[in-house]
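Agenda item 2: zinc ion complex prediction
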Amino acid sequence: MRRDLIFAAVREAGRISRADLVRRTGMARMTVNSLVADLLAAGVLAEEAAAPTGERAGRPARSLTLGPAAGGVVGAVISADGVRVAEADLTGSILDERHHHIDTSDPVTALDAIASVITGTGRVWSTVAGLSAPISGGIVQSSSVLPGWAGIAPAAELSRRVGHRVIVRNDADLCLLGEVGYGVAAGHQDVCYLRVATGIGCGLLLGGVVHHGATGVAGEIGHVQVDETGALCHCGNRGCLETIASPRQILAALETGYGAPITAEQAVELARTDATAERIMADAGRMIGRVVAALANGINPSLVVLDGPLISSDGPIVSGVVESLHRYAQPEVVESTAVRVSALGGRAALLGAVGAALRATPAARGERAFASASSPAPSSVAAPGRRERLVRREMIVEALRGRGSTARSDLVKITRLPRAAVVDILAELRHDGVVELCAPAEPRAGRPSPHFRLTAGGGRLIGLALAGPGIRAVVADGTGHVEESLTVPFPMSNDSHPILRATAEMARELFERHGPEARIAVSVPSPVHPETGRFGARSVLPMFSGFAPAEEIATAVGRPVLVENNAQLAALAEMRRGAARGSRDVLYLKADQHTGAGIVAGGRMHRGAIGYAGEVGHLNVRDIGPLCICGSRGCLSAFLTPAYFGALLENRPSAGGGSPGSQLAAGIFRTGEDRLLSLASGGDRPARRALLDAGRLIGRIVAPLCDVLNPGVVVVGGRFVEAGAFVVDGVREALMRHCAPSAAAGLKVVPAELGSDAEVLGAIEMLL
Ligand SMILES: [Zn+2]
Ligand SMILES: [Zn+2]
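Presented output:
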């Protein structure tokens, strides 16, 4: 255990003095010296002379580094021209990088050769290999790059040959990880990596995790439809981005203009001096940028990385992308999205394989390291930010859900988080009453690891939701079973103070009634910044701008309070107890005049860099459209207003009775919407058609998000669903028509099951 700490500190620092080790580990100098001596003798650590500082007299301090017996990782990339291999030590320093020109056309002989290259590198803890072909369920799919490999299970084959677990991934994923580990994306949690090459592809890092989607086809940005009457694409759809803005199109246009074949390098040069070439490439950049803007609004990355043979940082494609991003994304999103060009070139996938191997290296066991003269260690022991903590908290709770008693060591394996982080977050969850210590489900051999389970029957869970017509509250027992629910009418006004005060007051009363173990989460109709906890949305709901709702309510209650955006919580609730049960990749669409979305990626809520993920109401429908509250023109929300339905509502008799929600004193935005829903419920065909069309519009505009996120289920909720399934049918029809065939295949589009309770139940789910 104590050797763990020493080892982890050296691994993290790379090079550290004994004095700093004493400071960092908090152990006595004598203890540190004795442990270091053991590890040095075993070759796990090494010592090197430090540069003399000149300030101190006497013996110069010598710094400690990882020794040869600490071992390392191997990254490899297998492609048509052989295999490139990189070795790194456990601090991530690259020790060696080589290209082996072996024949990869026959996978069996190639795998033998690759395995001997890997074992030849010495003590290896983890190997990750990238393959230039799609892999699904561990099996290589047919591809023109490595045609002979179809049907092979490369990970199993390599693991058997080298004697340790080898992970094999598509090399596009690894390019993204290369940027995160060694390139421009270092330190970012939410990244869109765009490769503009033969095709246009996209890798997504969401909350620090590479996203693959429900059927593994996430990132199909090249087949986002940008022109429904455009040229036919090989995917079967029309007007895909690839048919308009791929390098092949750009080079073909240049060749036609210049009457001679042009290489990518020549095109980049030409664009510096020739106005036509510059214009052709800038235009392609603007087209790509329109789709990037939709992703920025919908997924809210902090970084967009551009890579490819025609991409140069001062070139016209990049400036075209930036121009469109500024034009079509919301102002706050533009401010928080950086656009950078990859600097890793052809090394991205290889460095990504090294990064993935470092991540896959099991958490530290300094004792074991000593015993076997080797050990991997946590990839990071730096204090994580609030947002990272939230994500890690959810990963651990998600891992415990449905598992019952689970060993802490198993949680480290399941979540792949650093052991220190798991220990730390379990302590926090225990303090909050979310988890408790328990006995192992069955006796285990070896050193016991503490076992944890989710607390059942403990304190009450209180969910509150601020919605247009009032404040909704639900009280549930420790397992999430609802015991009590109530609604207090409270109209939304232009001043957010009264409703926040009323919510805080209600939270305080419920908390007093249900005792000190109760925990509270609040759903709010505005994005919440994941780091600061503040509403950032001047452009979305101006009256909420700048408040820190969690702090305000927590001050009134005297307890910590969790606050989250309503559509995100609805998505979580529909996944756990509603229409998307059983799916881990869900897009929840709140279909009403403030259309929004909630994204669940790999079972976890996706919030985005500044909490704006799912703001689909500000996706562009038409350049010359109505002005929107965000300052752009032609946003989706600007279309679905009462004014948009105005002509339909004029001179039309109200269908008597059955007016959904009309008894909830309509808020300031509501009257037109209530009337439309009332007409549709009463059987009015034009009103029903209007809702079907609204669904088609929403579906068409969010189709790019489905192409890139690859959800298994799209749940349509929101007030428009109250009048029947018309809007759901419209969304389904449009998604099937406009999504890339790969994303549409197997996609389910279903009505929400939880109705207006989804948000408040999501608040309860967040506490579970
Ligand atoms: Zn296509
Ligand atoms: Zn807008």
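Discussion summary: The longest helix spans residues 275-299.
Owner for follow-up: CH.
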